[in-house]
Design goal:
Elements (H helix, E strand, L loop, with lengths): L2 E5 L2 E5 L6 H15 L24 E4 L2 E6 H7 L9 E6 L2 E7 L6 E6 L5 H18 L11
Length: about 150
């Protein structure tokens, strides 16, 4: 049994020994989000931004690692528009995924940070990108057929 007592902005939660860990985490997350202003939300996949690692954003945007993989600010930098070039990008450097950022004055690229390879979205992107690069660099370009 859980007893929740509210003291102004602080919430005390009393947990019994019979509770499951998922129940406790669920209650804590519910309390945390109820105190937020309501304008921030977690991504659909409950995963952090692949670039900056934030968990909460006002909206989630598509990136190189798929839908809802970038927070709003990183997604706006990654998106390329007709009048504005892409300001961040995910590239492969010596088989390691690296976030690159473009200087707004000189328009030159520089390394920002290494991407988290433990994130399955980044590792899937790396696998696909490596396969694409291998295909581009092979001289005998034949279609791959799945064996049935």
């Amino acid at each position: 049994m859980i007893t929740i007592r509210k003291k102004s902005n602080n919430v005390s939660i009393f947990i019994t020994n019979t509770m499951q860990l998922d129940d406790v985490v669920g209650i804590l997350m519910q309390q945390y989000y109820s105190q937020m202003s309501g304008t921030m939300a977690m991504s659909r996949h409950k995963m952090p931004c692949t670039r900056c690692g934030t968990v909460l954003s006002c909206t989630w945007r598509p990136g190189p690692c798929g839908t809802a993989s970038l927070c709003n600010s990183c997604g706006l930098l990654w998106a390329s528009r007709t009048n504005r070039p892409r300001m961040v990008d995910l590239v492969v450097d010596n088989s390691v995924p690296v976030w690159m950022v473009r200087d707004s004055r000189t328009m030159e690229w520089s390394e920002s940070s290494k991407a988290d390879i433990k994130d399955h979205r980044v590792s899937t992107w790396l696998h696909n990108e490596t396969e694409k690069l291998d295909y581009i660099h092979t001289s005998n370009k034949k279609r791959k057929y799945a064996e049935c």
